[in-house]
Amino acid sequence: MKKTLLAAVAAILTALAPGAYAQWVVIDPTNLVQNILTAARTLEQINNQIRQLQNEAQMLTNQARNLTGLNFSALAELRAALSATNQLIQQAQGLAFNVSQMEADFRRIYPDSYTAAISGTQMALDARTRWRNSLEALRTATQVQSQAVQNFAADERTLTDLVNRSQSAVGALQAMQATNQLLALQSRQAMQAQQLQITQDRAAALEQARQVAVQERAREVRRRFQGDGTPYTPAAVNFYGN
């Protein structure tokens, strides 16, 4: 490198030789080479600083992208779908979903046994109530099923939007927010499945309880028909004294 610079300086001096007759110019080759080397090192440092600043600017740009929020939220749609299903359950007729009230009504309408103090009319009314409870439980289950089917189309649109926004996310924050909303959609569907299972199990349980109560009512009706006296015992009868 140093030899190359000396050769360049010698060439410059040769080119300036014709003018030396007019004016003497004193040039120190060593000093000139040193100045050129210093300028080259300074230029290299400047280039390094420029590259460093460019890297820092790119880093800040990436950080800004990572901090950019997702301008989309499916929370309202998810909550609306869940609320619609929950409202159907709350409006269910028959036995209440409240634990204490349900237990009191269940003991009264589905007794373990009937006593003599209960009239036949009351037993018939209880049987009618049990039938209505089973019917209403089945109606609620079918309504929740219908609501779940209606939610499928909305879930498909929401899923498509969230997947598209997740794939086109410009930063980590947008991708994370889109993923969180996808998880929320999955949770909402799991809760809807749980609601549907509850209504179906409730309908099945009430129907089973109704069948048990039917058997108990039939036993009591048979007991009352037979009475508490000596039951009839068949015996042979001789009309002719033979």
Secondary structure: elements and pairs:
Blueprint: H1 2-15, H2 29-66, H3 75-90, H4 99-109, H5 120-167, H6 172-226
Can you offer a commentary on this structure?
The chain is an all-alpha fold. It has six helices and no strands. α3 packs antiparallel against α5, α3 packs parallel to α6 (172-226) and α5 (120-167) runs antiparallel to α6 (172-226). The N and C termini lie far apart (153 Å).
Q: Nutshell version of this structure?
A:
The protein has helices at residues 2-15, 29-66, 75-90, 99-109, 120-167, 172-226. With 242 residues, it is mainly alpha-helical.
* Mean of residue pLDDT values: 77
Structural class category: mainly alpha
Note the total helix count.
6
Helical content (DSSP H or I, runs of 4+) = over 70%
Order of helices and strands: HHHHHH
Q: Quote the distance from N terminus to C terminus.
A: 153 Å
Please state roughly what percent of the residues sit in beta strands, choosing from under 5%, 5-15%, 15-25%, 25-35%, 35-45% or over 45%: under 5%
Radius of gyration: 47 Å
Uncertain ranges: none
The profile of the biggest β sheet is: none
